[in-house]
Amino acid sequence: MIFKPEQFSTSSLRSSPLGTKICQVLAATLNQADAGMCLRSHLQVESDNLLIDTSRTELAIFNNVYLVGVGKAALPMTSTMIDLIGKRITSGVVLTKNGYTGCMDLVDDRIEIFEAGHPIPDQRNIKASTKLLTKMSHLNTDDLVICLISGGGSALLTKPAHGITLADLQQTNNVLLRCGASIDDINTVRKHLDELKGGGLARVLYPAQIITLILSDVPGDRLHSIASGPTVPDPTTFADAYKVLTKFGILDQVPDCVLNHLNEGLSREIPETLKPGSYYFEHTTNHLVGSNSQLVTAAAQVANSTGFTTELLPVMLHGEASLAGQELVDYAKSFGKHTKLTQPLCLIAGGETTVTVNGLGKGGRNQELVLGAVKSLASAENLILISQATDGGDGPTDAAGAVATQQTYQRGLHKALDPQYYLTRNDSYSYFDSLDDLIKIGPTLTNLNDLVFVFSS
């Protein structure tokens, strides 16, 4: 997908002298996150050999080559593999988020495509995962499976562990997503309630050779956490999963059968997830083909070429979103005081914050990050704060993120919009929607975490 600057225009950007250039930076940066382009930067095909960075796989030695695509970027990743090795592909199964197939034409009789629920799995997830298992069972050593994994895969690929129902998973996922837990914490629990996570898919595909190509939406690019590591050894344990529920005080909010299952794991009545050294991984290789840190670097290059002095923030975004927004603005104020600039400034950060949901409003971590900074921005001359999700959907909304400037606070007050009230309600979407400052670009078919920009003239 190719994004154009005008798709990022909001009320605040249209009124800013830097608005046109900022929209150019946002569009060009997101174009650098294209999932197919990420794959092609690591893959080549030479004389029927698949080259992935420094590794080489001879395709001709396999009787069958299967594709398994799971995640928000599954469609473009699959399309790219078809372009590269199409004649060698036997068949494949793709699981992607509901509504995504309408964003891209992928027609190949060998590939079955399923849409499923995200971030809360539903019956479609079970049906699609069961179809994948049926199609990919009973493989042999002369079969090759190329797995294309991206963010969102943890919810999409779902097979509840014995004794746990879909409703149990749905309730547990909902509690985890609202308590302020990080994606690592959430996936630690998910891996211990599901048979396909934590290396479980590798168990199903064994003894076939598995090549997994991974697009990371996890800060730090921990492969075992991305999509809950379906083909990756899992270093976390049932004890770790139990600690997450204890840490966030949600033991009494998850179903009893979930607690019973974790306790059975703690007492070793049921086996752990697959650990490093397991023979199920003897034919498996995992390759990172795209990450947030790579995108942040690309964003800096784009901003420089557009005429900004660029500075990468020294740490990745993390912690409570509304507090992170305030901290970013405070840093930008301090940076501006101690730096002499000959051209506009662009500060860039990447990562993923969290939101502890106490209200009944609508929003996502990027919108809440910006809302949390609105009051601080009121005393920050010429600063523009933008936070957006690279997948195009921030939380359960149709917005990728939001924009705020020094004028946002007063503009809001003129419409009787108190930012603190909307923060208390976790209703950042309504606040910025009223000001026409939501970024709405639709699904991007990629997922490399979040990007935050602070621009200053």
With strands numbered from the N-terminus, the spatial order across the biggest sheet is 6-5-4-7-8-9
Number of strands: 15
Rounded mean pLDDT is 96
Which parts are unreliable, with pLDDT below 50 for 5 consecutive residues or more? none
The radius of gyration computed from the alpha-carbon positions, rounded to a whole number of angstroms, is 22 Å
Q: Please work out how many helical segments DSSP would assign.
A: 18
Q: What kind of sheet is the major sheet?
A: 6 strands, parallel
Q: What characteristic shape results from the CA principal axes?
A: globular
Residues in β-strands, percent? 15-25%
Look at the helices and sheets and give the structural class.
alpha/beta
Can you offer a commentary on this structure?
β4, α4 and β5 form a beta-alpha-beta unit. The protein is an alpha/beta fold. α8 packs across α10. The protein starts with 10 loop residues before the first helix and ends with a strand. The relative contact order is 0.13. The model has no long low-confidence stretch (mean pLDDT 96). It is globular and about 65 Å long. The strands form three sheets. The chain has a six-stranded parallel β-sheet, sandwiched between helices. The protein has a six-stranded mixed β-sheet with strand order 10-11-15-12-13-14, with helices on both faces.
